[in-house]
Amino acid sequence: MDFINIAEDYTNRVKESVNNRNSKLPVRFCLSIAAFLLPLTMMAQLTAPGSNAVRYTSYPSAPGLKDPVFVFCNSTGTQKGTIMADSPGGTSPYNFSWYKWSDISKSFSIFLKTDAAVNNSVYSDLDEGGYSVRITDGGGYDTTFVGWIFLDKPSVHGQVRDFKCQIVALTGTAALDTFFYKDPTDGAAVRLRNGYTTMWSSTPSSVIPYPTIILTNKYFTQPPEDVIYKLQVVDSFQCSSESTFPFTSILVKADFSVEPATGEAPLEVTFTDESIRGSKKYIWEFGDITQGGKKTKDWIINKDSLWILNNPFTHIYYKPGEYSAKLTIESDLGCVDSLRFDKIVVDPSSLSIPIPNVFTPDGDTYNDRFIVESKSLRYISVEIFSQSGLKVYGFSGEGEILKEWTGWDGNINNTSIKASPGVYFYIIRAYGWDNVKYDDKAYRGFVYLYR
Question: What is the pTM of this model?
Fold first, then answer.
């Protein structure tokens, strides 16, 4: 008998001793033989088409004997197992006799079927449990392999535990499917090790601060939009289960845009509401003092606050300085939120010096007008005289008129008559929105007109 046949004979003896509770073969002998033949037993030609994972047994009585445990993910609850057997030795064709583990006899004693005179054998539509296959040929070859089938179905459940105006808490539970294979010597149940990981997510995507733990009492900020939360569990065999549930957000979020945020006085700022669910009340605080009071159907102005139900709208800042605007909103459910915008800057008044001393109203669009650069002026007066003392130009104004002033174009008193080239005397007086006066010698002088 060659080595392979001797090894196969030993293998058969180990298998028979494991399956036969009344065997006289000492356990220590079985263990030593199993350890000696471990490389051969690992060559066991059992496979499981369609399985998701494979693990190996660790029998208390024979830890060196490693039978495969084929794991099939059973998410639908209708999954069945399949085992295919090939012979590692002997001469084909073979006979394959299949048996199932019996918890009553504590052995593979339930006969299932025999496939005779074939090269390999496939057994499908198998329930969870243990299976053995005996392979023989016509020349005395005889060996047995064992495999276990685990139809794995983890479960998970998630839900909204609690929610308030700004926050929400999720909770979840996960349960692993367990599988016990049996020690062939005494039928003792051995639990197959398993573990799991979890993952929270949502559609549309939102921030979940603790995405990889089962949440029970962790509050976090609600998403601003309605979402579908999902809790997924994936176990050690890559079998998964998920739970989805919708959440209708009641988050109130104050938000607005400001345009422009800086400029000269009077600065007209447009506030555009971009809030979420501020359906009941809007309270605007602009940071300045609005004199007097005014009431219409839709809004009330009172000091520095504006309660408004429509937008966009414009608020005018007259006095130079820095301002902070605040919006407070309230929803129909009484949820409140606020947002402050820092900062709105109104430029201080200025009237540039030195005053230009020459201009050329020749129509080339360059230096065609006598004008003084200024900011945040409330009032300005410009008078221009000829050398003989004749007034040839005058302007005074405030507000919108001041904004439209483009300077002296070189014509006499706003007519089509062109002033002669030469020297002219100007007097400029101005008053800023910040109460600064511009009325001294720096704003009196001569300007040369060239054509």
Answer: 0.68
Average of pLDDT values for 97-107?
97
Pick the CATH number of 3-151 from 2.60.120.1600, 2.60.40.10, 3.40.50.280, 3.40.190.10: 2.60.40.10
In this structure, of 212-216, 244-248, 290-294, 356-360, the range with the lowest mean pLDDT score is 290-294
Q: Spell out the residues 6+ positions from residue 351 whose beta carbon is closer than 8 angstroms to its own.
A: 372, 373, 374, 377, 380, 428, 430, 432, 438, 443
Right CATH for 256-347 from 3.80.30.20, 2.60.40.10, 3.40.50.150, 1.10.240.10: 2.60.40.10
The top-scoring range by mean pLDDT among 114-118, 281-285, 322-326 is: 114-118
* pLDDT at 13 > cutoff 80: no
Average pLDDT over residues 145-162: 96
| CATH no., domain 350-449 | 2.60.40
Nearest Cα to 198, choosing from 153, 140, 154, 133? 154
- Asked whether the domain spanning 350-449 has the same topology as the one spanning 3-151, the reply is yes
Q: Which long-range contacts (CB under 8 A, 24 or more apart) does 142-145 make?
A: 142/8, 142/12, 143/8, 143/11, 143/12, 143/15, 143/87, 143/88, 143/89, 143/90, 144/11, 144/12, 144/15, 144/19, 145/44, 145/45, 145/46, 145/67, 145/85
- DSSP, collapsed to helix, strand or coil, labels residue 41 as helix
Q: Assign a CATH topology to domain 155-247.
A: Immunoglobulin-like (2.60.40)
The DSSP call for residue 253 is B
> What is the average pLDDT across 443-448?
97
Mean pLDDT over 23-35 rounds to: 37
Structure tokens at 241: 């289960």
Helix axes 27-36, 3-19, angle to 10 degrees: 140
Q: Token digits for 71?
A: 């794991």
Domain ranges of the chain: 3-151, 155-247, 256-347, 350-449
Burial letters for 205-239: b for 16+ Cβ neighbours within 10 Å, e otherwise? ebebeeeeebbeeebbebbeeebebbbbbbbbbeb
Please tell me the predicted confidence (pLDDT) of residue 7.
Answer: 36
Q: What is the mean pLDDT of residues 223-246?
A: 96
